């Protein structure tokens, strides 16, 4: 890891053992049985309880209630279970910022980006990418939380300037910290042993210069991120408007799709049980 990132990695949360084990399993692995997966997760009763609660939300729930971990794994499959494990894990990151204004605005933007991203992936007939899109959307700005954790006062001053003037956030971050939140976010996700697609989206989202082999995922997160900001969950400057208009044609979305996301999607999302459960999980309003 480059030396310039090390100072920001001090006093950061350690990835819990259960989440680390889940991350280490390849999604196409034939060596892991559902029973083994259950045994990895059930050592953490609190995690198990939260997974079952969210698994019974509207997006995941089937005809019957999911009553135990074995049933959840059988009905939902590995990708969905992995997504739920990491969702619950993420809700416990940076606990000391939980009472701050930053916590509420940061996770609200991240959650809405995640829901946008997953829905866009499905609309683009990339169901295979849907859970990756959700997690990538959730964690794309994690570098901002790292900076806030390191120096909350200085970082809030930067965010205030962005809000009031529309100045380019990454440039201000580099001036104050020597790095921007995309670089630091990618570094921490790599440190936590996330697969490459997650730290690539942290590094290259909201950029036209995409070098990642996971380009379609990066574009999906970029569109979702900018849509969330366009709807008021973040700062949507003229520069970002231009970026949104340039990135959108590289996604699968047609004009009517974009109009749907800009006008109707969030109204529908506010009625979604899973969205409300996720808000409660992160303690946001």
Give a brief description.
By secondary structure, the chain is mainly α.
Which CATH architecture of the largest domain? Orthogonal Bundle
Secondary-structure element order, as H and E?
HHHHHHHHHHHHHHHHH
CATH superfamily of the largest domain: Hypothetical protein af1432
Unreliable stretches, pLDDT < 50, 5 or more residues?
Answer: none
Largest beta-sheet details: none
| Average pLDDT score | 90
Number of domains: 2
Work out the radius of gyration: 18 Å
What is the rounded distance between the termini? 36 Å
**What percent strand?**
under 5%
How many beta-strand segments? 0
Global geometry: globular
Q: What structural class results from the helix and strand content?
A: mainly alpha
Total helical segments:
17
CATH fold assignment of the largest domain:
Hypothetical protein af1432
Helix content: 55-70%
CATH class of the largest domain: Mainly Alpha
């Amino acid at each position: 890891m480059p030396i310039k990132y090390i100072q920001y990695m001090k006093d950061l949360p350690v990835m819990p053992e259960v989440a680390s084990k889940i991350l280490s399993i390849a999604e196409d692995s034939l060596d892991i049985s559902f029973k083994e997966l259950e045994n990895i997760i059930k050592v953490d009763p609190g995690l198990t309880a939260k997974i079952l609660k969210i698994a019974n939300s509207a997006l995941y729930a089937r005809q019957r209630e999911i009553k135990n971990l074995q049933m959840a794994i059988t009905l939902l499959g590995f990708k969905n279970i992995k997504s739920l494990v990491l969702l619950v894990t993420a809700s416990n990151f940076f606990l000391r910022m939980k009472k701050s204004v930053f916590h509420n605005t940061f996770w609200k933007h991240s959650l809405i980006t995640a829901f946008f991203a997953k829905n866009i992936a499905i609309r683009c007939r990339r169901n295979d990418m849907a859970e990756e899109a959700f997690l990538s959307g959730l964690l794309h700005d994690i570098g901002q939380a790292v900076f806030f954790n390191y120096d909350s006062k200085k970082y809030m001053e930067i965010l205030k300037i962005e809000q009031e003037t529309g100045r380019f956030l990454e440039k201000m971050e580099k001036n104050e910290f020597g790095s921007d939140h995309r670089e630091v976010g990618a570094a921490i996700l790599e440190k936590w042993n996330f697969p490459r697609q997650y730290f690539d989206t942290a590094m290259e989202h909201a950029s036209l210069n995409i070098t990642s082999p996971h380009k379609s995922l990066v574009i999906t997160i970029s569109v979702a991120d900018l849509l969330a900001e366009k709807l008021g969950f973040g700062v949507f400057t003229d520069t970002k408007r231009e970026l949104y208009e340039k990135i959108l044609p590289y996604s699968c979305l047609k004009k009517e799709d974009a109009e749907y996301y800009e006008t109707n999607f969030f109204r529908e999302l506010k009625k979604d049980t899973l969205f409300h459960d996720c808000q409660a999980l992160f303690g946001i309003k």
